[in-house]
Write a structure and sequence with these properties.
The chain has 3 helices and 12 strands; from the N terminus they run βββαββαββαβββββ. The strands form 2 sheets. Strands 1, 2, 3, 4, 5, 6 and 12 form a 7-stranded antiparallel sheet that branches. The protein starts with a strand and ends with a strand. A hairpin with a 3-residue loop joins β2 and β3. It is elongated and about 60 Å long. With about 180 residues, the protein is of the alpha+beta class.
Length: about 180
């Protein structure tokens, strides 16, 4: 049974730092990556899954959406998080898939799949042969893991070298 962690700090001015770093994980979850300063004196620790910030549910939000909630707050900042009963993280950023080496980052890989092919067909019907240019702009996405300039799918199978079609999900907030 997960343990609920309640942490509240008081920020005197909008420019004050509160000492928390957050990362986003697969599935739209946000996790504590580090605490220092004000939040370093609370019960929050690395790997705790953040559920609420000032009463706002953050599941499904990007870290880039959560940062302004903390930065623009003055006064009390309340975070509700969860941790598993063993005292460890409630999930934390997921481990590498399969036999992929540790030390990488989860993200999204764009590729030419069924959605891209449908878009190309529509483009071809509407614009003729130039509509096939859509194939150069893949619209399908899947979870992927990148480490040492190599990309692996969620099952751990090697996909290929890391390119600009891979976008890390681990947006980090250090505030």
């Amino acid at each position: 049974m997960p343990e609920t962690i309640n942490a509240t700090v008081t920020k005197q001015a909008e420019s004050d730092r509160v000492g928390i770093r957050l990362v986003s994980g697969v599935g739209g979850k946000i996790f504590v990556d580090a605490t220092t300063g004000l939040f370093g004196e609370t019960a929050l620790k690395k790997g705790d899954e953040v559920i609420l910030i000032n009463g706002t549910l953050v599941e499904g939000m990007a870290v880039s959406e959560v940062i302004p909630m903390i930065r623009s707050s003055v006064g009390d900042i309340a975070i509700v998080a969860k941790r598993d009963a063993a005292g460890g993280a409630s999930g934390g950023p997921p481990p590498p898939p399969g036999k992929a080496p540790a030390g990488g980052v989860w993200g999204t890989l764009k590729y030419s799949g069924a959605q891209t092919q449908r878009n190309a067909c529509i483009g071809c019907l509407c614009c003729g042969v130039p509509g096939l240019c859509i194939l150069a702009c893949p619209t399908d996405e899947k979870d992927a893991y990148a480490v040492d300039n190599k990309v692996y799918d969620a099952a751990g199978a090697y996909i290929g070298p890391q390119t600009d079609k891979f976008t890390p999900k681990a947006n980090v907030m250090n505030r």
